[in-house]
Amino acid sequence: MKRKMILLSAAGVLALAAASGMAAKAQKQTGAVNLPKAKEFRIERSMSKEAVACLECHKQETPGLFADWARSRHASANITCLDCHQAEASDPDVSQTHFKQYERADNPWGKAQYRTPVAAAVTPKDCSRCHPDEVAQYDKSKHAHTVEIMWKIDPWLNAGLNSDIQRATGCYHCHGTVLKMKDGKLDPMTWPNVGVGRVNLDGSLGSCSSCHTRHRFAVMDARKPEACGSCHLGPDHPQIEIYKESKHGDIYDAFGHEYNWEAAPGTWTPGVDYRGPTCASCHMSGAGKVLTSHDVTERLSWELQAPLTVRPQDFAAFPAKSNWQVERQKMKEICLQCHGQAWVDDHYVKLDQVVKDYNDVYFKPMKAKLDELYAKKLMDPKAFFREPLYFEFYELWHHEGRRARMGAAMMAPDYTWWHGFYECKKRYVHFMKEADELIKHNQKAYQAPVFPGAGGSTQKPPEVFGKKK
Question: What's the mean pLDDT when you consider all of the chain?
């Protein structure tokens, strides 16, 4: 059928050409001036010679990168390398080494005539030229400010208890680095990095390619739970494991191949495009009366990752600017797309009780005991992990306490109990036993004379906190 249509189209074109030729001949012979001329229609989506040079060069040098771009919506819209990477010559993040690519004799596109300033790191500020709303929403989120949050609350950084290389390859890989230039190119201790809170040289925060991986930038990629699971995993925040255990994850595993992952932004509809939710459909995508948002801080009614569970607006390191009751109602609206009112309401009744149980039964008593040890000078509040007993307190909230709370929030019973409260009990009993022994004998806690892998900088980044006066 397709072949026949092509042949018919070709025949039609030939007939039209013949008719036009005859009309032109008649017009010439009769000298008539009132015969209609054949109208030419041409849609031209041109690009600059510099943009062509970028594409042709990368087609040879990095064919995988070029192939990703060629299959992207950017390519369909004629968005090229330069639309995202082009910079002003005076910009602080311009790659000086890239200029050497225009001095090559082995590549026809590596000529001075195509020389253009480019920056390797594409930032939210760059993306905002086409996606202003998404960037404005993202800038309000905890994701964008996670470097600030990390430095405000993390003893590993503030006490220099891990090394710079451990941070660069560990913490900063997800949280984001403060990008710096060195010898005309990005400093390897800060790059490559696509952390959600990356501090860019143009002052913007974050990296859109944390979720929309380059250079395909597919909405499908960001909608699948694996995109979030590259950072939200492990003993301290195992959201991807919790999701996979839940019925939501079970449905995704069974029916995910049927989901319409390519639905246009803002139109991805539960029950139509997908059966069971993913991370994005609950926390970001629109449904019912709730609009799509790139602010993942929305729809949260508890700060479940904090040592003591608080409402998001009471989280001292980064207080939310919204009301938790309003945000809970938004999340309920999302839930109600698939669940009944009683199901949704009763789920939140249990979640609130889990939070109270964790706060009152486990965290507050252990924190009070730790403060007692500090007050009696049996532990040093500045030693942190140099004193092994501190690990017990830290892991109660940072590991099993989070697993218990997050497991309840996302309906994963094994994480709520066996990985959560069961481990909380073990941790609590052991900590209290050791603490009471120290108090009974007025004995100072053991403090390691040597702590391995320490020595990281304790200076808060001035790009985030300002320069010291």
Answer: 91
| DSSP bridge pairs for 199 | 178, 205
Question: Reduced to 3 states, what is the DSSP secondary structure of residue 290?
Answer: strand
Average pLDDT over residues 390-405: 98
For residue 34, what pLDDT is reported? 58
Q: Are 432 and 366 in contact (CB under 8 A)?
A: yes
Write phi, then psi, for 312 (nearest 5 degrees).
-55, -35
Look at phi and psi of residue 77 and say left if phi exceeds 0, alpha if psi is from -120 to 50, else beta.
alpha
pLDDT at 397 over 50: yes
- Of all residues in the chain, what percent carry a pLDDT higher than 70? 90
CA distance 77 to 74: 5
**pLDDT tens track for 10-69:** 334 334 344 444 444 444 444 445 566 665 655 556 889 999 999 999 999 999 999 999
Closest residue by Cα to residue 109 from 53, 162, 148, 165? 53
Closest CA to 212 of 135, 104, 110: 135
The C-alpha angle with vertex 393 and arms to 373 and 409, in degrees rounded to 5, equals 145
Portion of the chain with pLDDT greater than 90, in percent: 88
Sign of CA dihedral 43, 45, 48, 53: negative
Rounded CA gap, 225 and 240, in Å? Answer: 7
Phi, psi for 362 (deg, rounded to 5): -115, -60
Cβ atoms 66, 89 nearer than 8 A? no
Q: Is 115 exposed, middle or buried (0-12, 13-18, 19+ CB in 10 A)?
A: middle
- Find out whether 335 and 346 touch, Cβ atoms under 8 Å: no
Q: Is 19 helix (H, G, I), strand (E, B) or coil?
A: helix
Quote the Cα angle for 86-230-146, to 5°: 65
Residues near 124 by beta carbon (within 8 Å), at least 6 away in sequence: 135, 138, 139, 144, 200, 204, 205, 206, 207, 208
CA 203 to chain centre: 18
Q: Which residues, at least 6 apart from 52, have a Cβ–Cβ distance to it below 8 Å?
A: 109
CB 456 within 8 A of CB 163: yes
Average pLDDT over residues 381-386: 97
313: which 2 tokens? 């607006």
Is the pLDDT at 213 greater than 70? The verdict is yes
The one-character DSSP state at 359 is: I
